[in-house]
Structure formats: structure tokens, C-alpha cells
Amino acid sequence: MTAAASAAASAVTRQGISVGIATGAYGISFGALSVAAGLDVWQTCALSLLMFTGGSQFAFVGVLGAGGSGLAAGATAGLLGARNALYSLQVAPLLDLQGLTLGGRLRRVAAAQLTIDESTAMATAQPGAPAKRYAFWVTGATVFVCWNVATLIGALAGSAIDPERYGLDAAFPAGFVAMVAPHLRHRQGLAAGAVAAVICLTLIPFTPVGVPILCAAAAVFIGVRRSDDPTELQPMAGALDAEIAAGGNSFLGPNQRDERDLGSAL
Is residue 184 part of a domain? Predict the structure, then answer.
């Protein structure tokens, strides 16, 4: 590996770990809010280990905390988590995980679990397949470890933390504002957001908690962009869509030659 390629690889590693730590720290808020919503420590940790998608987890505990049923909470979380299936259309060709051996199957399971907003954005920002795979695994693994450790810390401290006093109760709506904001820059996204808001505001006085959100999902069809190539689908949610994508050109060093060196070295 040349010096330039080594520096580029280090840049990807630093960026992936930074994203992982920053996102993982947000898990403290989830752990505290989950306990405040009525789940115990083990249930909270199980959500982070198994569901492992922040938006869906906050939606789940948010609906429960507001008095909604488990069915409404699960449906809302599932609806938000469905975006990861779209991410897989981008990630699967990049990772190219094949084989029927036990190792191959375990790698596919791990990749499926780590396919989230952050790992997808980091991977798709890279110029070459090897660099894309490297960024995916570094970011996904770091987020997974940090998110679960932070969830445990937040859940254990939950009884000693007043979410309203420390502003943690704002984490749920703030997270969704961050997800939506980048898409409001485009006419289709703005139209979909406006229609969804109208649907929600109309139904809130008359329907149980969680139902307005589910009904408002119909507005997503306004923003659907048709494409013959499923790999061209863009990430639909995630706070880092604007942050990481905007800085994507700086991930791999000063020039394209270094990027190609990184790809061949990895």
C-alpha cells in the first residue's frame, strides 16, 4: 500500500469511526426514553440488539410512551424500518456476498443487520467497490457497538434521569425532523411532507396514538421516483443524509489517484 493509499484508508477509518461514535452516543437518549416509556433494561437492550434501527426504535417507544398499543407501536416501527430494504438494493451489489457455506451465510446475516442509514451513506460515498465495502463494515460495526453500549448506559441510568429536565424527550421529534429536513429541499419531498402533515393533524383528534403516523405514510407515494435500476434508489431517511453526503468528496483524500490506490490496496 502506498503512502497516499494508506492515508486515504486512514481517512475512511476515521470518518467511519467518528460517525459510529456520534450516532452511538445518541443511544443514551434512546435507553433513557425507553425505560421512561415503561420497558425494562433488558427489553430496551433487546430492541437495540435485534431491531437496530434508531428511527424505528424511537418510534416504538414514542408510541408506547404516549399511551399507544403495542400493535400501533410495532406497525409504526416496521413502517420506518422498511426503508432498510431499499438500502439493501444499493448495498447488496457493493458487498457481493455469495456462497452457501456457513461463513458466507453469517456474513450475509451480519451485512443485513448492519444495513442502516449511516453504513449505507458512508459506503455509497466512496468511489470504488473495495473502498465501499471497507467503509460499510467499519461504519456499521462501530455504530452497532457504540449504539448498544450507549443504550445500556441510558437504560441503567434511566431511573435517575428526568428526560424532560435534560431535553431527552425532544430526541424523538428532533430525530425525525433531521430525517425529513434534507428531503424538503426538493419539490416532491416538500409536497409529500405537507400532505403527511395535513393527514396527521386531521386525524390526531379522532384516532388512537400512532394511527395518524401510519395513515400519513400514504403521502410517501408523492415522493416516489421511478427507476429501472434499483441500485439508483437513494437513501430515504437518516440524519446523516445531508451531513455525510455533503462531505462525501473529502472522505478519501485529495485526488482520484489516491482513491484508486486505496481501492487496489483494499
Answer: no
Residue with cell 434521569: 161
Domain of residue 156 covers 3-167
pLDDT digits over 61-97, tens only?
988 888 888 888 888 888 878 878 888 888 888 888 8
Residue 14 in domain? yes
Phi–psi pair at 157, nearest 5 degrees: -90, 0
Write out the chain in H/E/C secondary structure: CCHHHHHHHHHHHHHHHHHHHHHHHCHHHHHHHHHHCCCCHHHHHHHHHHHCCHHHHHHHHHHHHCCCCHHHHHHHHHHHHCHHHHHHHHHHHHHCCCCCCHHHHHHHHHHHHHCCHHHHHHHHCCCCHHHHHHHHHHHHHHHHHHHHHHHHHHHHCHHHCCCCCCCHHHHHHHHHHHHHHHHHHCHHHHHHHHHHHHHHHHHCCCCCCCHHHHHHHHHHHHCCCCCCCHHHCCCCCCCHHHHHHHCHHHCCCCCHHHHHHHHHHC
Distance from the Cα of residue 28 to its chain's centroid = 16
Kindly report, residue by residue over 119-129, the tens digit of the pLDDT: 888 888 777 88
Residue 44 inside a domain? The answer is yes
Q: Is 183 within a domain?
A: no
**Total number of domains constituting the chain:** 1
- C-alpha cell at position 67: 399511551
